């Protein structure tokens, strides 16, 4: 499998050094610009690091391959997760960043969950918006209390409720400190997602 840890990305330096830097991970069909407005709302003044997924599915960028909707190519996911971890470590050094807080949506939330499980200690925390279980057999932490906010949509046609509950259980089992909320929403983000992420980031 040939992938590279050099991602096309957008980097925005902090204007408020008290804010933790954010790692923004877009959904299928998005790019490095998609979540910049979300980052600016949930953590005004924070440094923003926003890579573009390296896989193309019918022209749509993603962070890893899937075999069908919700069915992941786990070997590809493992390799892409490791590449993204290497990119994050490089970017942290290059820009002198503290550990990042991931804010991931959909496919981006799924690779953020994979980063937590495969690279415990890399992220300061993660807000997972409409995430699913990334690995059938998850590596078991140790996440040592890493804060995770998992926001699911009660009317989400892509992520079944039992799947997001299983992810919460998996992350808790690996030692993360998980807050899981079911919102009256579908797969798309709502205003409530933004306020909850903003409050959660402010409390980190
Ligand atoms: C995925 O493939 O990561 C999930 O099905 C979410 C999506 O991107 O549609």
TrEMBL record:
InterPro entries xrefs: LYPA1-2/EST-like (IPR050565), PLipase/COase/thioEstase (IPR003140)
Protein name, entry field: Alpha/beta hydrolase
Cell wall biogenesis/degradation among keywords: no
Keyword Hydrolase: yes
Pfam families recorded: Abhydrolase_2
GO molecular-function term, one example from the UniProt record: hydrolase activity
Coiled-coil zones: none
Domain Phospholipase/carboxylesterase/thioesterase: 17-202
Keywords, comma-separated and alphabetical: Hydrolase
